[in-house]
Amino acid sequence: MGEPISLSRFILEEQRKYKNAVGDFSLILEQIAFAAKIISREVNKAGLVNILGSIDSTNKSGDKQQKLDVYSNEQMIKALDPTGKVCAMASEEIEDMLPVSDKSLEGKYAVVFDPLDGSSNIDVNVSIGTIFGIYKRVEDSDCKKSLLQAGKNLVCAGYVIYGSSTMFVYTTGQGVNGFTLDPSVGEFLLSHPNIKIPQYGKIYSINESNYFRWAKGIQEYVNFIKQHPDRQYTLRWIGSLVADFHRNLLKGGVFLYPEDSKNKNGKLRLIYEANPMAFIIENAGGMAVDGKQRILDIQPEELHQRVPLIIGSKYEVELYMEYREKYG
Ligand code: AHG
Ligand code: MN
Ligand code: MN
Fold this sequence. Notes:
alpha+beta, Fructose-1,6-Bisphosphatase, Chain A, domain 1, 2 domains, 5-stranded mixed sheet, 9 helices, binds 2,5-anhydro-1,6-di-O-phosphono-D-glucitol, binds manganese (II) ion
């Protein structure tokens, strides 16, 4: 085994490739990784809360024990706000954008995140995650426009999965790299260099309880996948986008949360979920669409807008587009 490469060292070496880089961006990334470690620690002991009897208790500063998604949201903000490198943040947990507390700092980046994805899985010990995206600030006074950029303008996107181990996966547009948290040293270590998604897979991930609410094209697509002439597909649905995505990224296949008669634009959010994951999948050689167009081309109109998301290996995503074209 070679010597381990820590996330910090990797970030530094990446930074050195850019002559003009002053380290602002690296600091943001380091701080997100720091927040991830704190969240990871909290996620891992969540199951002990009842046993240790601290759910209704107050801590030393008098705060009530927090729900994990609120807690994660706070950790992300606390990690990013003092860097001075961010002009604003937008979080799935907060209605409006979040300006940084010290406006004089004029950070050059805007950060978006889903602090805890897969909330319904928290209480049952199933993998959950954190998703983030980083944009360069564009010329605007309050930074709102910088947060509402199309996904193709992302300069970095990543996620953290709190699974059987904690992993940090990210891309700056030149390959996707995965790091596994070694709890004994408290560092993320490079474990999955240059991740590429296979061109096709054997997994499809969709909440099939929505079958009778789908358009014909989606139903026909899933029917075809089940009787595919060339290979036997299998269905996997965890119910945490991060976990379903991570598995499919490594093994190949497709994740779908399309629109249905109840959720007209699907369920997932363009800014906090679809765009970062789409940026990652494209950098790993896969595709992400809403059924009609590339996710990364969509111009967001508001922070919390939802979008149908079909994301994964090229073959399965292209096939989906063909079925929608043919059957509607
Ligand atoms: P969040 O916990 O951030 O609100 O997101 C949950 C999302 C996503 O992680 C998952 O893929 C999807 O909801 C599951 O939806 P269903 O409950 O409809 O299966
Ligand atoms: Mn989510
Ligand atoms: Mn969430």
